[in-house]
Structure formats: structure tokens, C-alpha cells
Amino acid sequence: MKVLFGGYTDHASQGLYEAFLDQQNPNPSITNLKNIIQLQRPTYFQTDGSLLFTISQNDNQAGIASYRLIGQNYVQIDAFYHPGAAPCYLALSKNKKLIYTANYHLGTLSIFQYDEQGHLQFISSCQHTGQGKLKEQDAAHPHFFNQTPQGNLVSCDLGLDRLDFYTFDGQQLKHVANYQMEAGFGTRHVRFSVDGHYMYVVGELSSKVNVIQIDETNWNFAEIDSVKTIPESYSEHNGAAAIRISNDDKFLYVTNRGHDSIAIYRILANHHLDLIQRIPVYGAFPRDFNFNSQQNLLIVANQNSNNATLYKRNQKLGTLVPIQKDFYVPEPTRVIILD
């Protein structure tokens, strides 16, 4: 199966890369890295069948670009660029053919439409304003924008320590609610329980995961748990990054940039989190990670050490065992496994 990597292009990277993962082998491994698209800073991307949508930079402009797999090659279909910094996050609604982006530096959320060929149309955007208490919170810094289980939209703003909720009528965003985290939390990403009644919110600046009960009908919220992603004794800099939940809703995973680890929690019946493992990433500054569709394998992308690490995952226990620690990938911040 294919593995796609993207990231910064400040040093050795030429853009988007593809590798091969042999999951049928008793000893799976990642092999055969090759550059498939040359572009600047594809730090986050998504796929929809043969279509690929990525954050991109074009010299002094930035935005998103679309590609289509034709034969064995990705061909650029369209792009939408604007002056200034690129978005940091991109999500898809495949059934609605919508793209959601969050721009950390500009403080904006945007929505685009795409067609089956990959052509892009800008639909709507909104601007966040304000600041938080820490030096990293000098302005609004949205870091995530995606759908909720009920079909609303949610953003995470690291600068404001806040989750904002919107409705979208096909043309305009309407702000309907927000949830304020504690000062200095650094709201980065959110995942929802399968039933949609609980949010698991990762704080980059606080190295925490908070569990919040949510009612999207009346917009009621209640915090029910908060855990640190790093040991209490760890005093060096850390930034919590990616967060994912297993398909069975039983285990939660978070990467730690600085402590350079993955923290793994069992999700208890009351939705509290119980730490079961904290494992090294065998690299530096782990950003994104992802499972294969069977969720018996996990790959983490280590940005500052130019490598990806492959783990076997015990589906019953949720724990990880490293099986490949030194696969070279330049400046990776995003990884997707295409089954």
C-alpha cells in the first residue's frame, strides 16, 4: 500500500513524497521513497479517491492546490493563492465536496468547494481576533477547522484558548457557540467520540488533553477530565501536536514534540483517560501520525530528524511496538496511509 508524506521544504525536501508499506509481510516495513509532486511546503494534505488537496506556498503567495492522479502521476488541476502565509490545516467533507482550512498566521477560517475533477471555488471565510496570555498567543491562531458529528463546524484557536462552533448554509458561516478553555491551554486539535457526545481537545502549549461533554442541540458543555501528555517531572519545552482515536473508541493517541513521544490512553466507560503507555518516537519533533485501515500499524512523522517510525499496534491493548525506526523522509509534518 502507498504512504504519502508532506512537510516543510526549507532544506532537503522537494514537496510531497510516496513510499510503499508492505503490511502483508510478517515484518512490515516502509520502503521506496520517491518525490511525486514538487511544490513548496505541503505541510498538510488530504485525499479523496484520485484527488489530492494540499496546503502550498508559491513564493510570496500561499494557499491550497489540487492534484489528480492520472495514470501513475499527480497532475495539478487548480490552485487558490493569496498574499501572506499558508494555512496550517486542511480537511475535507467528501460527501459535500467541501474543503475547510485554518490559517494560523492570518487568523482566518475558509471554505472551498471542489468538483469531481478537482477544480476549486472559494465560498466563504471568517476572521478571528483577540489574544491570549502567553507570548505564543499574541493574536488569534486557528489551528483546526472541520465538521462535528452533527454536521456543524468547529475550529480550535491556539491563540484564544477557544473552540468556536459554526453552521454553514452553503454560502455563509454563522457563529453559534464557543467553549473557552483555561488560559494558556493552546487549543490545537479536537477529536470526537463515536457517539458525538464527547470532545477530546489537545492543548499544544499546556501539553494536556481535556475531555469535554458536548450537547450540539443546546450548546451545553461540561469538562469531565484533564490529563498531561508528558511526565510531571519533564521540565523541557514540549508542544503536544496530533491527536487520534482508535475506530473502536477505546484508545487515544497524542504526539509530544520536545519529549518526542506518543502518549497512549485507554478511554474508560466514563470517558476519563487512563495512561497506558508513553513510547519514544525514535526521532525529533513528531508532528502527524496515522493508522492503516486495519489499525494494526501506525506511522509517525518526525520533522526535525527527517525520519518516520513504524509501529505494530496491539488492537486489543492499544499499545505500540516499534518495528522500523530509521526510514528517511525529509522534513515530514503529515502522513497518510492509503489502503
UniProtKB/TrEMBL annotation:
- Provide GO CC annotations from the record: cytosol
Q: Which SUPFAM superfamilies match?
A: C-terminal (heme d1) domain of cytochrome cd1-nitrite reductase
Q: Which PANTHER family match?
A: 6-PHOSPHOGLUCONOLACTONASE, 6-PHOSPHOGLUCONOLACTONASE-RELATED
Q: Which organism is it from?
A: Lactobacillus iners DSM 13335
- Tell me the InterPro entries matching this sequence: Cycloisomerase_2, Haem_d1_sf, Lactonase_7-beta_prop, WD40/YVTN_repeat-like_dom_sf
Gene Ontology MF terms in the entry? 6-phosphogluconolactonase activity
> What is the protein's given name?
6-phosphogluconolactonase
Domain of life assignment: Bacteria
Query: Gene3D superfamilies from the entry?
Result: YVTN repeat-like/Quinoprotein amine dehydrogenase
